[in-house]
Amino acid sequence: MASIGSWWRVVQNEKDRSSGLESDFEYRERWITIRLVYVSGFLMFLSFGVVTTGLWPYLQDMDPTVGKPFLSVVFAAPPAGQLIFSPLIGWCSNRLSSIRVPFVILTALFVFGNGLYSIVELFPTPHRRYVLLLARFVFGISTSINTLSRAYISTATKLSERTGAISMSSLAQTFGLAVGPIIQAALSTIGKEGLMWYGLRINMYTMAGWICAALGVVYILFLNPSCFVHRTIAAQEAMKTTGFSKATDTYEPLKMFSIWTVMIGYSVLMFFYVSVQTQTILSKLLGTRPQGNWMALYTSIGGLTRIIGPASVVVYVRFGTYWLFGLGAMISGLLLIWMWCYKSHLRTTKKINHAEEMQRMANGVAE
Q1: What angle, rounded to 10 degrees, do the helices at 145-155 and 234-242 form?
Q2: Which candidate among 16, 70, 125, 248 keeps its CA 20 to 30 Å from the CA of 163?
Q3: What angle in degrees, to the nearest 10, is found between the helix axes of 292-308 and 159-187?
Q4: In 254-350, at which residue ranges do the beta strands (DSSP E only) sit?
Q5: Burial call 231-267: b when 16+ CB within 10 Å, e when fewer
Q6: Each residue's pLDDT tens digit in the chain (367 positions)?
Q7: Three-state SS for 201?
Q8: Domain ranges of the chain
Q9: Coil, helix or strand for 346?
Q10: Torsional sign, CA 57, 63, 69, 71
Q11: Euclidean distance between CA atoms 9 and 269, whole angstroms
Q12: pTM of the full predicted structure?
C-alpha cells in the first residue's frame, strides 16, 4: 500500500533518490509530465473508439448517396494523415528542446478535427462527404502525437522504469478504445434527430465529436509550462553507467534485422486489424436493423482484449521475446483455424449454384 501511495503522490523512493540522477522536485516534475503524456494516448484512442462505431450511419445521414467504397476511404484518412506527418513529427522531436509546443499544436488539430466532424451538416450535401473526410484526415494528423509520446517516454524514463511506463501508456490507449464505444452507446439515447442549438444539430453522432473536442481543450490547459515540463533522464543514466561524458557515446549499434522484424510484424497485424475494423462483414450480418448497440458491443469486446493486452509485458519480462511472440502466433493460428472451419457462417450473401442462376435467367427472358 505504501508503494501505491508513493506512486499516486509522485514520491521518489529511496533507491531512486540514492542514484543521484535527480532531485525529488525533478522526479515529481518528470513523472507528472509522463502521466500527462499518458492522457494524450487516452484522448486519441477515445476519439477513435467513439467515432468509429457511429461513422458509417453518420456518413449515410450526411450524404445518402455515399457507398461503402467511400467508407473505406474515410477509414483510411486517419492512417494517411499519420503516415504523412509522423515522420516529420519524429524528425522534429529529435531536434527540439521540448515537445510541449508540438503537443499543443497537435492537440489543437485534434480539437479542430473533431469540431469539424460535428458540423458537417452545415455544408452543402454534395460536399459533406469530403468535409467529413477532411475532418478524419486532420484527426489522423493529430494522432502523430503518439509518435512524440513513445519517443518522450523512451527518453524520460530510466531503464528499470521504461517497460512499466510504456505498458501504462498502452493501457491508457486501450482504456480510451474501451470507453469510446460505451460513450457512443450512451449517446444513442439522444437519437439521430437530436435537437438544434444555435444552428448546430446536437445528436448521437455530433455529440461524440463535441465531447472529444471539449476534452481536447481541457487537455491543452494542462499543457502549460508549469504542468508539462520536458525532462529527460535516459541519457544521464546511460552516461553514469558507462562513464562516458557524451550521450552519443552511449549509443549501441542498431540491430536492423530485429528492428525490421518487429516493424513488419506490427504492420501485418495492423493491416488485419484495420481490415476487420471496417466492420463491413458484421454490418451485413446484422442486416438493416439499427446497429448502434451491436457496433458498440463489437468495439467494446475488442477493447476488452486490448485491456488484457498490456499484461503481456509480464510474459516478456519473465520469459522473453520468443515466448511472447510464440504465444501470439499460436493464438492467432488457432483463431484462423476456427474461422476457417466455420467460414460458412461468415457468408453475408446466399450462395447460388449455376443451375439456379440459369433458371432465373430463363425466367427473366420468358417474362
Answers
A1: 30
A2: 248
A3: 170
A4: none
A5: bebbeebbbeeeeeeeeeebeeeeeeeeeeeeeeeee
A6: 445 445 456 777 777 777 778 888 888 888 999 999 999 999 998 988 888 778 888 888 888 888 878 888 888 888 888 888 888 887 777 777 888 999 999 999 999 999 999 999 999 988 999 999 999 999 989 988 888 888 888 888 887 888 788 888 888 888 888 888 888 888 888 887 878 888 788 888 889 899 999 999 999 999 999 889 888 888 888 888 888 888 777 777 766 776 666 666 666 666 666 555 555 555 555 544 444 455 555 555 555 555 555 556 666 667 777 777 777 778 778 877 877 777 676 665 554 444 554 555 455 444 4
A7: strand
A8: 10-252, 256-366
A9: helix
A10: negative
A11: 38
A12: 0.73
- State which CATH number among 1.10.3720.10, 1.20.1250.20, 3.40.50.720, 1.10.10.10 fits the domain covering 10-252: 1.20.1250.20
Rg (C-alpha) for the chain, rounded Å, is 24
The C-alpha atoms of residue 29 and residue 23 are separated, in whole angstroms, by 10
Are 57 and 279 in contact by the 8 Å Cβ rule? The answer is no
